[in-house]
């Protein structure tokens, strides 16, 4: 019986694991990667590439290695709990080598279109048009796995900032940020208190004259590291913790979490206390 062919779009972490899963299920994967290397989001480059997510040089992942590793390929013991982006990429390279995944990837190949075959209702097949070195190719697949990520396109709503056209300073999206040196001696405003906003405010503060954070509603700030030095995502996702949330009221759980976070620093004192409760939304730093 002929193996079913599966198109995998993107060779980042999702793409690599999708290739591996296809092989485990005796399918025939063909991965299309528009750049010349694997890694997707986690492959740092000084200049952002169009159509690919971009990170800054200092990025450290928020997820501990115990929680993020592949179940069939553990992260080396000597790697830190929270890895720098270069270590994450190296881990993905080891994963790809361990399971011989690179031979299933067509690099420098862009997927132009994906559409159902005319007989899709009976065949379930897809027509995939790709382009490599100026030449287009059409292939038919039994399935398509889209692994292109969701941090690719920057959202910079300049229309929401009246007078921006008269602003004489520099403005940019965090996607374009790479290091703090260009902000030396300057007054910098960070708009937004998500993970990137928090990271950039801290890092730029080491070189800038002054840094401000603008946030619409504040945020509850969690540490990556929990009690006794354990990674927070490990210690807080136990069966016991889950049991407590089931038997305690939502209000009691919120009060407990907020008290724990205020032990690190008083959110109200620092102007960060939001109106929403801790279980509604939290920022891990």
Automatic annotation (TrEMBL):
It comes from Equus caballus. This is Flavin-containing monooxygenase. Transmembrane segments: none annotated. GO terms for molecular function: flavin adenine dinucleotide binding; hypotaurine monooxygenase activity; N,N-dimethylaniline monooxygenase activity; NAD(P)H oxidase H2O2-forming activity; NADP binding; trimethylamine monooxygenase activity. Its main location: endoplasmic reticulum. Belongs to the FMO family. Gene3D superfamilies: FAD/NAD(P)-binding domain. Keywords: Endoplasmic reticulum, FAD, Flavoprotein, Lipid metabolism, Membrane, Methylation, Microsome, Monooxygenase, NADP, Oxidoreductase, Phosphoprotein, Transmembrane, Transmembrane helix.
């Amino acid at each position: 019986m002929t193996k079913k062919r599966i198109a995998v779009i993107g060779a980042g972490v999702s793409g690599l694991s999708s290739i591996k899963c296809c092989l485990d299920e005796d399918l025939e994967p063909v991965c299309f990667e528009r750049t010349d290397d694997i890694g997707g989001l986690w492959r740092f480059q000084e200049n952002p590439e169009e159509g690919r997510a971009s990170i800054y040089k200092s990025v450290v992942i928020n997820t501990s290695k115990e929680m993020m590793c592949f179940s069939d390929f553990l992260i080396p013991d000597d790697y830190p709990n929270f890895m720098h982006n270069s270590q994450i990429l190296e881990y993905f390279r080891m994963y790809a080598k361990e399971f011989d995944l690179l031979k299933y990837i067509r690099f420098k190949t862009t997927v132009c279109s994906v559409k159902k075959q005319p007989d899709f209702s009976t065949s379930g097949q897809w027509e995939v048009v790709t382009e490599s070195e100026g030449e287009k190719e059409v292939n038919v697949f039994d399935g398509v796995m889209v692994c292109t990520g969701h941090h690719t396109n920057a959202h910079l709503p300049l229309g929401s900032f009246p007078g921006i056209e008269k602003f004489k300073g520099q403005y940019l999206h965090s996607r374009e940020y790479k290091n703090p040196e260009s902000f030396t001696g300057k007054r910098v405003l960070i708009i937004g208190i998500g993970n990137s906003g928090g990271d950039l405010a801290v890092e730029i503060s080491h070189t800038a004259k002054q840094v401000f954070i603008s946030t619409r509603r504040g945020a509850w700030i969690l540490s990556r590291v929990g009690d006794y030095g354990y990674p927070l995502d490990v210690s807080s996702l136990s069966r016991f913790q889950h049991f407590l949330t089931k038997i305690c009221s939502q209000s009691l759980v919120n009060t407990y979490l907020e008290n724990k976070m205020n032990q690190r620093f008083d959110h109200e004192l620092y102007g960060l206390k939001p109106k929403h409760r801790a279980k509604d939304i939290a920022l891990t730093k």
